[in-house]
Amino acid sequence: MNGNIMNKNELILAGIESPADVQDLSLEALKTLSDEIRETIIRTVAQRGGHLASSLGVVELTVALLKIFSPPKDRIVFDVGHQAYAYKILTGRRDAFSTLRTKGGISGFPKREESPYDFFDVGHAGNAISVAAGLAQARCFNGDDHKVIAVVGDGSLTCGVSYEGLNQAGAAEKDLIIILNDNEMSISPNVGAMAAYLNRIMTGQIVTRFRAEVKNILKNVMGEPIYSLAKQFEDALKGFITPGKLFEDLGFKYVGPIDGHQVKHLVETFKNIKRFREPVLVHAITCKGKGYCQAEQNPSRFHGVGPFDIETGKVHSQPRPPSYTTVFGKALVKLASKDPKIVAITAAMEYGTGLAEFARLFPRRFFDVGIAEQHGIVFAAGLASEGYHPVVAIYSTFIQRGYDHLIHDVCMQNFPVVFAMDRAGIVGEDGPTHHGAFDIAFARSIPNLTVMAPADEDQLSDMLATALTLNSPVSIRYARADGLGVPIKKEPELIPVGKGRMMTEGEDLLIIAIGSMVDPAVQAADLLAKKGISAGVLDARFIKPLDEDLILEKSRAAGKVLVVEEGILAGGFGSAILELFSDKGLGGGSAVRMGISDAFVEHGTRAELLADLGLTPEGISAQAVSMLKDRPESKLRRFSSIRL
Ligand SMILES: Cc1ncc(C[n+]2csc(CCOP(=O)(O)OP(=O)(O)O)c2C)c(N)n1
Ligand SMILES: CC(=O)[C@@H](O)[C@H](O)COP(=O)(O)O
Ligand SMILES: [Mg+2]
């Protein structure tokens, strides 16, 4: 299919009310249905944004699964879940699909509360095999006989947890089906030894090479007559050496590789394996982006994409200041060009973390470790122990995977590893699995770790330079957002560790803000000034160590303190301030905290969700007004903020 998506009538899809309807369709109808689903996905994602290429790659797979298996009796779980759009469309969410990823609309990932056909909430990679193992065990306890199927991408076979799942499931000998959806892509081309192994299976090299080796041995060691005899048994030999021997050795019946776009082939295969009573792995070869030429040609760009023009594939965009991610990538390249000890590590997010330019310029110092956050952190610790200066760029939500390693392998030994925690705070449409809500709370409790958050993009560049001068671990958190458009200094300035700064002075109230909340706090002070309220704004810059002297001095002077952060309140930055007040005798009751309360934040645009949380200039100013409501009117009108 070219860039032209015809607005055909979706005749078959229109008749699908539940997945049971798919089972009545002929093979021909299933093919047409696949085309119709593809069009629906392309049209919807072009409007809403989303995970296009991955979802297009599994349309036939999904249709064939639903032809043979019967959810909700049979359980189908998806790894990551970003590829489940066809499944959503066929399991009762066809009409709601137009609300994909919008606030109050359907989620971009499987979600139990959204549908009885979704069995597990997901968003992070690598857990599907373990989930399936748990579901199979529960089935066994309950004496049920349904099927359990995990759809897993090749990228997810770079996750350590996938092997933990295989390890148990293979030995448990329980009836369980893994569909390995191999498109040779993670977000970028897939990496590592397993990816190379799968590629050798796919290209037939494993069988061919084995046969060539056996032939040589027979010829050289046994002589020509035995070789001729063996040749007659070549077919038997071929059958004996299965291409997925690695999986067979782990206890799985390997089936494949099969073409993941041939509905007939898929349906026949699924019909056959449905009878098996043992762990099975079906290796399906698919094309990421299948059916939309722009995505087939550039699957990385269309992995997760904003609204775009279907004809051209161009993403709709306005001129905007560079994002924090872009500024980070550029700043790191600049620093690395002067310091050969700097190395950069990503866990399968080269583009998302802004490291593409670094990878191009310093290929020997760039490491994509796969979706292996835990390994990436320990790998960095190993490098740091030998005098290198690793910068580990991982999204806040994914670094949760590496928490033990952050403590045990990096901070306990005080290694100078810099963690660039991108996507810290509210990320928007990806929702609760992806919001970076917890990193302040979990980072600030770790000894030796310095924790910073820039208020603008220039400060991010300064903080990165500062972090690389410290001989200890550092975390820098920044949001999935554009910068403020401030100019970035030619040469970064080092920031004294643990020093905050005043943005505005004020006398009625002090707003202490961190990172992405500094600018809204300053804007709030402007709104408050218009109401006759004089609010000071303190940019803490460091979550740890805190600028205790400045915070205490200004808080004492103001009397009323409002702390604002884009992170979970429990144990967060505001908690750090309250601890300080309590420890230094200021009285904890005098500070009000704003941030993410004790709940998972759903999906929506970043702006909508921040507004819901009150983390906007208007929300902060409203909170300040309510804190001051008992003050005499005359006092409030005496002061105005003085912008520094
Ligand atoms: C723990 C974790 N790290 C990183 C990601 C970001 N991520 C989402 S999908 C993806 C690639 C998945 O590749 P694969 O499983 O092969 O699926 P495909 O998109 O190729 O179908 C990555 C790295 C994630 N979701 N979870
Ligand atoms: C599914 C997944 O985990 C990623 O594709 C993620 O959605 C990327 O997020 P960004 O768009 O913020 O890079
Ligand atoms: Mg893949």
Structure explained in plain terms:
The protein is α/β, with parallel strands linked by helices. The chain folds into 3 domains: 67-288, Rossmann fold; 324-477, 3-Layer(aba) Sandwich (Rossmann fold), CATH 3.40.50; 506-628, 3-Layer(aba) Sandwich (Rossmann fold). Helices cover 42% and strands 14% of the residues. It has 28 helices and 18 strands. The strands form 3 sheets. A 7-stranded mixed sheet has the order 7-6-8-9-11-10-15, sandwiched between helices. The protein has a 6-stranded mixed sheet with strand order 17-16-13-14-12-18, with helices on both faces. Strands 1-2-3-5-4 form a 5-stranded parallel sheet, sandwiched between helices. Strand 10 (450-452), helix 22 and strand 11 form a beta-alpha-beta unit. Helix 3 packs across helix 5 (59-68). It is globular. 51% of the residues are buried. The structure holds thiamine diphosphate (TPP), 1-deoxy-D-xylulose-5-phosphate and magnesium ion. Magnesium ion is lined by residues 153-155, 183, 185-186.
Approximate shape? globular
**Span of the ends, CA to CA:** 58 Å
For CATH, the homologous superfamily of the largest domain is named as Thiamin diphosphate (ThDP)-binding fold, Pyr/PP domains
Strand content: 5-15%
Which structural class fits the helix and strand makeup? alpha/beta
The CATH class name of the largest domain reads Alpha Beta
Q: How many DSSP helices?
A: 28
What is the average of the pLDDT values? 92
Assembly form of the protein: single chain
The Cα radius of gyration reads 28 Å
Number of strands: 18
Unreliable residue runs: 1-7, 235-240, 636-644
